[in-house]
Amino acid sequence: DRHGGGGTRAAAPEAGVPAPVDRPADGARRLGRRGGLPQHLRHRRRAGPGSVAGHRRTLIAAGVLTPAEVLDRYEAKRAEVQRLATEASERPQLDSAKAVMAPLAPRRPAQVEARIDKLTWTEPQTFAQSVNRTLAQLLDQYPSLCVFGEDVARKGGVYGVTRGLQKRAGAGRVFDTLLDEQSILGLGLGLGVSGLLPIPEIQYLAYLHNAADQLRGEGASLPFFSNGQYRNPMVVRIAGYGYQKGFGGHFHNDNAIAALRDIPGLVIASPSRPDDAAAMLRTCVAAADVDGTLSVFLEPIALYHTRDLHDDGDGGWLAPAPSEHVPIGRGRTYGDGTDLTLVTFGNGVRMSLRVARRLAAEGVAARVLDLRWLAPLPLDDLLREAAATGRVLVVDETRRTGGVSEGVIAALSDGGFTGIVQRVASEDSFIPLGEAARTVLLSEESIHDAAISLAAQQLHI
Question: What percent of the chain shows pLDDT beyond 90?
Fold first, then answer.
């Protein structure tokens, strides 16, 4: 018996037909000779009925093929593989960074804008209400859209942001999940690659970090390694940042987003105003639908139910539905002061606007640039508003090390800005409970003091 424990032979099988070399079996035979193959695996050395040699014997024995026809098939397959290999070697090669990065973040802004439906409410809303109403209309617009996460369905979310959506769209499209962020994002990846539009919610930013590789190693990399043949369209809503009162500590007040900022192709939306939240959420969903974009949508917890800007009862932080489309990578400017530019995002926008009014009363004219998008940064808006005053104070509520301000200052330098740049940021610390949080978080007072100091510095023209 030529196969009785000796493995597949490399020559002279039935009727003189040469056998193709079975590399795995050859390797197993060599290991077996050295005693390196475990006993329970040694049966794999035998060319059983399921092996290539086994199929060959069966076909010849049954009279389906002659030995010569078997050999012809081997040679035909060899020629086919050779042809395909030659074709592959002659295809255009990845010879530039642009070519390599093309699948990361396809941008078709005109098609994205065309997918934007008008939002219909007119009365002023809070941030939470604005997101809720936008999700409701998006569920109507996109039949494939799903909203899910911890407590988002029956409870309507910790802060009521998803209240009523399950009743509106049904339990098949708005549903609760396990208390496991890896499962939530993994489900989103599966839904996205299957042709649906998932909007998973991560209940708190601090909860994301144990599951971030679902975005880094799977979601963002799939279109890259498949050259755009597959994609993971998804909008991940995350409640985050600091300044939440009465309920906090590190796990509910987290300001660390460095792990997101360096993921190639990932879009990071960071709205602060209710109207921007609505417009930017529409944009993220439309980009997911058109381009397969993977986005993280950061929602400042402390601003969910904020109504006032300067004084109690002024309603200055409420806003109606947006009337304009907000493209990815476009900022928003408040004021036209010529003394300095406050560049900020998230909670920093409200603090900076409040500080800007104080500065105006003290004779310092400041403008405020809300970045809105942290990846990609609104570079054109940033350079324009910086050049308008020559003095830039970056107001960064994230940590000093790894925070957003590092990327902003680098972008100003790369863009050729020659004015004065300074920054204020939160400390390199976790956020503690209670009033102690104020000791490590960026404050309005620190913004004001830094702005006064910067405005007094002479510009070198």
Answer: 73
Which of 316, 330, 243 is closest to 274 using CA atoms? 316
Q: What is the mean pLDDT of residues 414-423?
A: 97
The predicted model gives 176-194 an average pLDDT of: 95
Spatial neighbors of 72 by CB under 8 A, at least 6 apart, are none
Indicate the pLDDT class of residue 297, thresholds 50, 70 and 90.
Answer: very high
Q: Is the C-alpha dihedral spanning 128, 291, 137, 325 positive or negative?
A: positive
- In this predicted model, which residue has the larger pLDDT, 39 or 153? 153
Which strands form 373-375's sheet, in the order they lie side by side? Answer: 174-176, 145-149, 197-202, 234-240, 294-300, 267-269, 373-375
Q: How far is the C-alpha of 135 from the C-alpha of 163, rounded, in Å?
A: 10
CA-angle at 189, arms to 184 and 190, nearest 5°: 100
CA distance 197 to 189: 10
Residues marked as catalytic: 252
Average pLDDT over residues 265-271: 97
Nearest to 334 by CA among 351, 312, 358, 356: 356
The model's pTM: 0.83
Judge whether residue 15 has pLDDT over 80.
no
Rounded to whole angstroms, the Cα distance separating 211 from 244 reads 23
pLDDT at position 439, please? 92
Res 435: pLDDT: 86
367 with 457: CB under 8 angstroms? no
Q: Which residues contact 9 (CB under 8 A, 6 or more apart)?
A: 2, 3, 19
Going from the N-terminus, what domains does the chain have, and what CATH number goes with each?
Answer: 14-89 (no CATH), 110-303 (3.40.50.970), 333-455 (3.40.50.920)
Angstrom CA distances, 37 to 27, 28, 34, stand at 10, 7, 8
Given a cut of 60, is residue 2 above it in pLDDT? no
| pLDDT top residue among 383 and 23 | 383
